[in-house]
Each structure stands twice: as structure tokens, then as C-alpha cells.
């Protein structure tokens, strides 16, 4: 088998395995093209290092192996495992820096307040709505596309984070939702909400 063909097959095997592991780690899709390129680059750069390690460990010299084949096989298994781990790490880092499929979920922003009441016509409803709208402006100023924001809600003090202490400052907050956009199958039943202990009619 030609050397270039063997090299390509090993690199493709690395790409397939590293892509599968990266998808499991990130729980998202990873681009095959990127994985193949990273595998080829890392595998190519590792060859001089592997040869140097073989010579320093007196396993390989003058174009031939100096130890038995079981030792050679074990050595190569360890080296390939190390290279594989490097490939996975590089793929994961690249996905964090430049995602293959950036999030496109719609965004819902909610503003909340504690139970302290304002005097006059400016109530917790206006305050919570202004709080959510301020968060919207910050997100858009940071580069978020305005089309992704589908709702901005003011919830006042109707959903307290700490219901035991309605005046707790932690109740003053914003909540950002990224709803899933995947549709249920026609035959799939919607999930049953957990039993809250309340009866209804």
C-alpha cells in the first residue's frame, strides 16, 4: 500500500473517531471538513515528533526497529492514543471559538421585580418591562440580531425567585429563554408536566 494512501486512511479514521467523540462531548454537530483538516494537520505535525521519540527511546534507528513487534505495537498504540487526544482537544477548542452551527434559537427576555411597591403610576409592571427592555438593548448592542428577539416581557412580582421572602433583592432579575425550535413528530405526545400537587377542573 502506498505511504500516502496509508497516511490518508489513518487520518480519515482519526477524523471519524475524533468527530464522534467531539460530538458526544459538545452534544452538538461538528463539521466533517473541519475535523478532516484538523486531523491531517495534527497527524502531519506529529510525525517528526513520533520519529524523534522512537529514536530517543531506542526503538527505531537507521530505518529499522530494534525491538520486538509486540513492543513496537504497544508503543504505536500509546502514540496514536496521544495524537487522537490532541485531535479531539483541537476540534473542541475550534468549535468553541468558531461554532460550526451557531445558535439561532429565538430569544425571550423576562424582567422581574421584588414585591416592594412603587407609589404613583410607575409600578412593578413598568419597572420589570423596562428591566427586560434594557437587557434587550444590551444584547443588541453586543451584536445580537434584533430578529432573534421575539418577546420582551415584564412579569412584575408574579414569579418570585424566593417566594419565602418577597422583598429579597434576588427577586430583581432578568430571565433569558432560548426555546427549542425542533418540532415534535405528529405521533409524538407532548411531555406530561410533573404533578404539582394541585387539583384543577
Q: How does this model look, in words?
A:
- With 201 residues, the protein is mainly α.
- It has two domains: 3-97, no CATH class; 107-177, OmpA-like domain (60s Ribosomal Protein L30, Chain: A).
- The protein contains four helices and five strands, in the order H-H-E-E-H-E-H-E-E.
- The chain has helices spanning 3-26, 32-56, 69-97, 124-141, and strands spanning 60-61, 64-65, 107-112, 149-154, 173-177.
- Strand 3, helix 4 (124-141) and strand 4 (149-154) form a beta-alpha-beta unit.
- It is elongated and about 90 Å long.
- The model is unreliable at 184-190 and 193-201 (pLDDT under 50).
Number of domains: 2
Order of helices and strands: HHEEHEHEE
**Unreliable parts:** 184-190, 193-201
Task: State which percent range the strand residues make up.
Answer: 5-15%
Oligomer: single chain
Largest sheet strand order: 4-3-5
The assigned structural class equals mainly alpha
Count of β-strands: 5
Chain-wise SSE layout:
Blueprint (H helix, E strand, L loop, with lengths): L2 H24 L5 H25 L3 E2 L2 E2 L3 H29 L9 E6 L11 H18 L7 E6 L18 E5 L24
Parallel strand pairs: 3-4
Antiparallel strand pairs: 1-2, 3-5
Helix pairs in contact: 1-2, 1-3, 2-3
Put the structure in a nutshell.
By secondary structure, the protein is mainly alpha-helical. The protein has four helices and five strands.
Attribute tags:
single chain, 201 residues, mainly alpha, 60s Ribosomal Protein L30, Chain: A, 3-stranded mixed β-sheet, 5 strands, 48% helix, 10% strand
